[in-house]
């Protein structure tokens, strides 16, 4: 299918002109700007479903590397595309099912204990051909190669097809008012994060956010996260120092910004949000409040 036709279908699937479709929030931005953590928390607060599109590109990269295919060789593009088309990728986000946590405000959150906060954070597990690869896809090796994989046009089409299928399942479940503990059937809306969500995947999203943060701040946060998750430099080529992490993020951003197809770009109608001096809770509050504001306008 041609890229243009595919995107047209995707938009139709997610963006009919009627208000029966779920409210869509598109979050884009550079690496480690806080997209996925913020998106999950926004989804939890609002009872929306969540799709991490970066996880799809990471899965394809992990699968290619596992098969000994080097993504930095352009001649391997066909092999990587064939892999992308056949892989079965599933995301499972576990949300707190307590309805009151959807309405929690910053002051509630600040008064909660650390353990209780951690307990309430949603988590996403990623399954590749039914195997849990949530940690495998976050290694330094995968991060180093993922931008090359994401620059291959037919790989992007294969990923979009998979994202669209998941989104369509969400829409169907939401239309049927099915609410259960699965990430697939949370009513009312969808939050998706990535690099081209506001520009290509959900061009008619009800709210587009372009999340940025100073690259030094991003590197500090990413390094902390890698250490917390037990990154092991002996089995991974992660260089666990600030300078190397910052250089890796900046190189990936440059590749993502300058690729020909669906580059990382702020949508013209996106709201800018710089998280450098915000807490996670503050950035979530800002987005949740904006969703409430836009929804109340839509009702009137
Ligand atoms: N405002 C913030 N203050 C402190 N840490 C943050 C903030 N926003 C995000 N983080 C942390 O930064 C790291 C990177 O965020 P993440 O959501 O993974 O970014 P992205 O999805 O854009 O790569 C995570 O460990 C996250 O918890
Ligand atoms: N919509 C998307 C999402 C991710 N990607 C690619 O996938 C990579 C990994 O995305 P990610 O969101 O997991 O990366 P982090 O920002 O979490 O480090 C990005 O660097 C992009 O190359 C993309 O091209 N388009």
UniProtKB/TrEMBL annotation:
Residues 25-292 form the Cytidylate kinase domain. The keyword Glycoprotein does not apply. Pfam families: Cytidylate_kin. GO terms for molecular function: ATP binding; dCMP kinase activity. It is an enzyme of class 2 (transferase). Keywords: ATP-binding, Kinase, Nucleotide-binding, Transferase. Belongs to the cytidylate kinase family. Type 1 subfamily. This is (d)CMP kinase. It comes from Mortierella polycephala.
